[in-house]
Amino acid sequence: MKTTKKMMLFVATLFVATFALSSCLSDDNETKVPTVEEQAGYQRTMAGTYGSTLRFFYPSFNNVVKYDSLKHYSWDVTADSTITMRNFPVCKLDSAIVISKDNHSDSAVEFAALRTAIHESNATAKLTAKYFVPNDKYFVEYGYSFPVFPMTIKQSFFYNGKSHDVYFMFDVSGTYGGKFLSSNFTDRVFEYNMVLSGICVDKYSAEGLISTQYFRQVLITCSTK
Q1: E strands, 6-142, where?
Q2: pLDDT per residue over 200-220, tens digit each?
Q3: pTM for the whole structure
Q4: DSSP label at 35?
Q5: What is the rounded CA–CA span in Å between residue 49 and residue 172?
Q6: Alpha carbon of 99 to those of 105, 107, 124, 161: distances in Å?
Q7: What SS3 class is residue 188?
Q8: Taking 70 as the threshold, does the pLDDT of residue 25 lie above it?
Q9: How would you classify the pairing of strands 177-182 and 143-150?
Q10: N or C: which end of the chain has fewer CB within 10 A?
Q11: Angstrom distances, CA of residue 56 to CA of 44, 86, 219
Q12: Quick check: helix, strand or coil at residue 224?
């Protein structure tokens, strides 16, 4: 509960900071920040259930490689700025853990066991994210684009004779996001991207963070195609 409250406060701070930045930009670049009423109107327009394909990619030599996908997957978008995936497949995030073939250290053995536990768990979790339209620079033809701020997922896995709490953290810088399109209000598109940026084991802190020696980011695309 404390972790959730901290994350909500962090995301709320990001919202305020982004709006403040947009306000500063508006003075020089004639950027218009939506009012509370306008923002609520955008989100009412975007609210609904969407889906088709969830895809997972890992980076490789300045490229991305698709390693898994799920068809007929859906997500709910509500007018309170929330995106919800009710059965997000945490088990598909095993590819975030990488171990070189010649590494037989204790850490390598431990993380290999964690990767196996994630892969074999078939674990799913509720994944929520916040979204909003910062300013009119995010207007596109027939819709809007927006940044996305996913919440951390906490999941327990049993490996090496012990249960461990594992935290899957996503990029919340506002770099990743999506788009909403609707030319006739019946053919509606709501697509977005997320990036798994870190995994903590046992402690939701820097001490529990898996080092980059054993971790790589995972790009998740949520597409209606």
Answers
A1: 48-60, 63-78, 82-88, 125-131, 139-140
A2: 999 999 999 999 999 999 999
A3: 0.85
A4: P
A5: 23
A6: 10, 10, 24, 21
A7: strand
A8: no
A9: antiparallel
A10: N
A11: 29, 17, 6
A12: coil
Q: Which residue has the tokens 């399109």?
A: 181
Average pLDDT (58-78) is 94
Separation of alpha carbons 23 and 30, rounded Å: 10
Candidates 92, 57, 86; CA nearest to 74 is 86
The torsion angles phi and psi of 2, rounded to 5 degrees, stand at: -65, -40
Q: Inform me whether the pLDDT recorded for 155 exceeds 90.
A: yes
Signed CA dihedral, 19, 22, 27, 31: sign only:
negative
Handedness of CA 187, 70, 8, 216 (dihedral sign): negative
> For the residues of 194-220, what is the DSSP string, one character each?
EEEEEEEESSSSGGGBPPTTTB--EEE
The average pLDDT across 33-39 equals 96
Name the residue with tokens 């996503």.
Answer: 170
Q: What is the dihedral of CA 85, 211, 160, 204, to 10 degrees?
A: -50
Measured CA distances, 175 to 131, 140, 171, 188 (Å): 12, 17, 8, 23
Which of 127, 220, 138 minimizes the C-alpha distance to 167? Answer: 127
What tokens were used for 123? 């674990």
> How many other C-beta atoms can be found within 10 angstroms of the C-beta atom of residue 214?
21
CA-closest candidate to residue 221, choices 15, 80, 52: 52
Alpha-carbon distances of 130 from 86, 146, 151, 152, rounded to whole Å: 15, 10, 8, 12
